[in-house]
């Protein structure tokens, strides 16, 4: 039993060492990610349940490393936040997303909105409103066409600090969404006080919405609450028609998820958007 315990322990420390080494490898590679041009954005469409139109897209980050392969954002964004690399990376994302939108706007997609994920550090330390204003001016994208997705936990934990930055962004016309809503510890009072325009209901609540009465009740009350507060509601991670139908019955404003479209590279996304407008898709 003792020997087995020792073996388990050894395996455990080996696993830990491997993970630490992998983290070190990733952190090292992450430092050069911008100069090596290894980042790209994919875009996931958002569908209005009221009009059936695609109203916008969310920009999602992809890191393609020459020999480590495609590294998912959930693996490297926490590392980028620890090292502060998320600041220059976040600026790259903002500029790239707005540059793409500028190009698409020239293809007749003038009312399309662009949503960009913004991390805690950017909101709290970065000179975010000034940078956003500069990117908007450089690309000619109106502030009203840009939405920033902020995670619930940050906004709530540092509400006072975040509120000023958020207001400065709103003054540019930029919309503000609370991302992954329902997973953190939002207080209604804060929600009311902060200049938020949109709630994105987390996928975790959407997954079983068609089978689970509790989840159905949760989305129903989130949507009702949002309505009371004058907020726009988006459901994320919609994979099936049954979920979409239910959310439509609950008067959810918009949905996003594989059922509408997967995240697409810019070329395929533009094709998707143009086909949708001409009524070819779905
Ligand atoms: P998120 O903001 O909640 O983004 C939604 C995630 O769910 C995306 O994963 C998307 O590909 C995935 N997804 C969308 N629809 C479906 C669906 O129907 N089914 C399933 N199973 N998944 C779906 P992704 O692209 O891996 O991004 C993961 C997270 O990484 C994002 O979660 C976001 O928090 C973060 N992230 C991505 N890009 C950026 C960025 O540019 N900046 C920052 N700070 N964070 C980012
Ligand atoms: Ca998001
Ligand atoms: Ca989300
Ligand atoms: Ca999520």
Automatic annotation (TrEMBL):
Residue ranges of domain EAL in the record: 23-277
Protein's name in the database: cyclic-guanylate-specific phosphodiesterase
Provenance organism: Luteimonas gilva
